[in-house]
C-alpha cells in the first residue's frame, strides 16, 4: 500500500504536497502535537514540530503568535506547500518590483516551486496553526533581506542548526 507521503515524493509535485498539508491540517487535535514551550521561551516567537519524515518528504506544524514572521527565506531547492489549520497568516512575495501580500485563513492552502522566496506572518489574534510539507525534505534554507536592489541573501542555515 502506498502512503500519502510516498505518493507525494513519487509525484514530487507541489499540488500533491498541498494535498498532504491539507490532510494533516484537517486534524482537529493538531494543537496537541506541539511541544510544550521551553522554560523562559518568548511567547511572541513561533514554535514548531516535525509531524512526519518519510521517503524524503517531511511535514511540519508551525504555531504563529500574532505578528510573528519567518523573515524572507527560501527552502533550499525543495518544493513545498502549506495549509492553514487555525487562524490566519499573510504570505509576502517580492515580484521584482513590489511586495505582494496574500492572506490565507483557516482551510486555505498554498503550493510553491523549488525557487520560491517568501515571508510569512501570523496575523490572527492569538495563535495560528499551519502545516507545511516539503519534498525533498528540507536540508537548507537561505535568508534574505529586501533592499533597494531586491532580495539580497544574508546566510544559509542547515537542518542541523536552529531554523
UniProtKB/TrEMBL annotation:
It comes from the Bacteria. GO terms for molecular function: iron ion binding; oxidoreductase activity, acting on single donors with incorporation of molecular oxygen, incorporation of two atoms of oxygen. Keywords: Dioxygenase, Iron, Metal-binding, Oxidoreductase. This is Cysteine dioxygenase type I. Belongs to the cysteine dioxygenase family. Fe cation binds at residues 73, 75, 115. Transmembrane segments: none annotated. It holds the Pfam family CDO_I.
Amino acid at each position: 500500500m502506498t502512503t500519502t507521503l510516498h505518493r507525494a515524493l513519487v509525484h514530487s509535485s507541489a499540488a500533491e504536497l498541498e494535498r498532504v498539508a491539507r490532510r494533516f491540517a484537517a486534524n482537529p487535535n493538531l494543537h496537541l502535537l506541539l511541544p510544550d514551550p521551553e522554560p523562559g521561551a518568548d511567547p511572541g516567537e513561533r514554535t514548531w514540530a516535525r509531524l512526519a519524515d518519510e521517503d524524503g518528504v517531511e511535514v511540519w506544524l508551525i504555531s504563529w503568535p500574532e505578528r510573528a514572521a519567518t523573515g524572507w527565506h527560501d527552502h533550499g531547492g525543495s518544493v513545498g506547500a502549506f495549509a492553514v489549520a487555525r487562524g490566519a497568516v499573510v504570505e509576502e512575495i517580492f515580484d521584482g518590483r513590489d511586495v505582494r501580500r496574500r492572506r490565507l485563513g483557516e482551510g486555505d492552502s498554498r503550493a510553491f516551486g523549488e525557487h520560491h522566496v517568501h515571508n510569512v506572518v501570523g496575523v490572527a489574534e492569538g495563535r495560528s496553526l499551519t502545516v507545511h510539507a516539503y519534498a525533498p525534505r528540507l536540508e537548507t534554507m537561505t535568508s534574505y533581506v529586501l533592499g533597494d536592489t531586491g532580495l539580497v541573501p544574508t546566510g544559509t542555515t542547515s537542518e542541523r542548526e536552529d531554523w
